[in-house]
Amino acid sequence: MGDEIPLGTLFTILAILIILSAFFSGTETALMRVNKYRIRHLSRKGNREAKLAEKLLKHPEKLIAFILFGNNLVNFIAASIVGVVSMKIGGPAGVAIGTLLLTLVVLLFAESAPKTIAAIFPEKIALPASLVYYPLVKIMAPILGIINFFTNIILKTLGSVPNQNDEKLSIGELKTLIHDGMTKTSVDRQKIMMGVLDLGNITVEDIMLPHNEILGIDLSDSSAVNQNIIQQSFYSKLPVYQETLDNLKGILDLSNFLKKRDLSLYNNEMVLNHIKQPYFIPETTTLSQQLLEFKKKNEKLGFAVDEYGNIQGLVTIEDIFEEIVGDY
């Protein structure tokens, strides 16, 4: 192979293989660490990448088998190329040096670095990666099935039995009881009960509308601009702020405002007389707790803040209900 293919071509192929290895390593970490509740929420909102990621994560054994197959394949080919090139350049001693260098390069640039980055930004990496993996996993399904079959045989031989701790009833087991105990005519009720059980595992951060997607009334804009925003708004409440959302003034209830004011006479000063104090929520609050807080404080909308008090997003009681009932 070394006599037929120029060294420049071999090095180019080697670089591509290392990039592929880094892709496999990084995306594996991202897909395994990504917040599955966040993925499910984005999927219900119509995000195509999230829908594919959700489908992939329903069968993680197939996804992992494909990633390991691909990663080992490219690493094997890379090692073969290094062996040929090293032998051509430096003989047997060159092979040893080449193998050592390849090991270091793979460890640093195809394992440690991509896995670390993926652990920091799992969602940003997992979502686009799903576009690549979903069709490939579908195509490779027969081969992956064989791999998983033999994997399961090895696990059984080694006596690996999952879920050996039967002392406590887990959420998963409780879901099974609900599933088995419901009749076929009560599927919708079953979905709602399943959604309620999940609320303790999902945080406000998982379902909130991100900071950069929040629509509101900026008092630094002209009255005409804000009048148009109010006219076209699909929401019953809008945040009112000065220049940035971090300088939040309050919440405007559009239904009450429009009952009392003629919109054709609108100006920004009117808004300040009709806003109410905003309600802030720690972004780490679970949905089960937040649902109780909404009821206790008689609120329907809140702003999620981080540990420094900076606004990260917005969540409504309707968002929580949507998590409970799903597509019902």
From TrEMBL:
Main location: membrane
Residue ranges of domain CNNM transmembrane in the record: 3-191
Domain CBS residue range list: 274-328
Subcellular location: Cell membrane
PANTHER family: HEMOLYSIN-RELATED, UPF0053 INNER MEMBRANE PROTEIN YFJD
Similarity remark: Belongs to the UPF0053 family.
Protein name: CNNM transmembrane domain-containing protein
Species assigned in the record: marine metagenome
